[in-house]
Design a protein that fits this description.
It is a single chain. By secondary structure, this protein is of the alpha/beta class. The protein has one domain (8-188, 223-251, 287-302): Rossmann fold (3-Layer(aba) Sandwich). 43% of the residues lie in helices and 17% in strands. The protein is built from 11 helices and 13 strands. Helix 3 (70-80) runs parallel beside helix 5 (101-122) and helix 9 crosses helix 11 (305-320).
Length: 321
């Protein structure tokens, strides 16, 4: 098991999921080294606000660096000697990856390789990798199981995440690094990225603008509340299996139109819909089989979607006051 006195190196620690994980770790007295480059994928000020509360905590160290920069990563590992790496940093999103595939490969593949190389060089034997439900592609079998054959990703983002899983296995095989790859299923909740559907829809509804709904509104996503994701990540960190791939999802897909209706009820606002064609790379459904995750991590869903949407709506409305 990783040394509990040595810091956790948390990449992407100023983002949505990363800042919540930092909250959880710091609350338990765990030292955290947050690596984030505050890029402009969305407003850097949002990410700085996410971690502002941590700045005065002596257990928290912020390193502004790009995971693509191997020299900067080596310096970070050498200075802080982490016990464990939780690698959340990535260029995210299916649709923008179609527009910028080279950037996604550089960040998600080279960046992950750099971190694994630093783990090898500095003797860090525990690595948690944030993967994605997008790796399943257009999977006719539901729910999606980690035993399903993954051969046909349909976006550069999905391909880079699958490549990351494979490189993680390679470093486990060659150097004995313990790796758990966690396939996240559409995470939502307070601090959600502004480009993601729930936050984007809420913002447009509040501004009296149309929300874009792709296809006929029947597309389904396995929306998973942030608290359940953090619970799963913490359990994976504690178990430290030699090599595993696990789903972290809600196992209850919700259609886009169901989402819109629940947002209307929770926000007390009416949605104006602009119908759009389905973009390249989008899949019709995501649906997590979490049986193995439950068996190995004791993972369970504690926040059903109806409650999670109300929690998100309250956070969103509070920020507007």
């Amino acid at each position: 098991m990783p040394d509990s006195n040595a810091p956790i190196l948390l990449t992407g620690g100023a983002g949505f999921i990363g800042s919540h994980l930092a909250d959880s770790l710091l609350a338990e007295g765990r030292p955290v080294v947050c690596v984030d480059d505050f890029n402009d994928f969305y407003e850097p000020e949002i990410k700085r606000a996410n971690v502002a509360q941590h700045a005065a905590n002596p257990l928290y160290t912020l390193v502004e660096a790009d995971i693509r920069n191997l020299a900067a990563m080596r310096e970070t590992f050498q200075r802080h000697r982490p016990a464990q790496v939780v690698h959340l940093a990535a260029r995210a999103g299916v649709r923008p990856s179609v527009e910028q595939p080279l950037l996604y490969v550089e960040t998600n593949e080279l960046g992950t390789l750099n971190l694994l190389e630093c783990c090898r060089e500095f003797g860090v034997s525990s690595f948690i990798f944030a993967s994605s439900s997008s790796v399943y592609g257009v999977n006719s079998k539901v729910p999606f199981s980690v035993d399903d054959k993954i051969t046909c990703p349909i976006s550069p983002y999905a391909a880079t995440k699958r490549a990351g899983e494979l490189m993680c296995y390679t470093y486990h095989h060659l150097y004995g690094i313990h790796v758990t790859c966690l396939r996240f299923f559409t995470v939502y909740g307070p601090r959600q990225r502004p480009d993601l559907a729930i936050h984007k829809f809420a913002r447009l509804m509040a501004a009296g603008k149309e929300i874009p709904v792709h296809g006929d509104g029947s597309m389904k996503r396995d929306f998973t509340y942030i608290a359940d994701i953090i619970s799963g990540v913490r359990a994976a960190m504690a178990k430290d299996y030699p090599y595993e791939i696990l789903n972290l999802g809600n196992s209850n897909p919700i259609s886009v139109m169901e989402l819109v209706q629940l947002l209307e009820e929770s926000l007390g606002m009416k949605a104006q819909i602009a119908w759009r064609p389905v973009p390249p790379g989008d899949v019709p459904i995501t649906y997590a089989d979490i049986a193995r995750t439950t068996d190995l991590l004791g993972y369970k869903v504690t926040v059903p979607f109806t409650l999670g949407i109300r929690k998100f709506a309250q956070w969103f409305l509070d920020r507007r006051r």
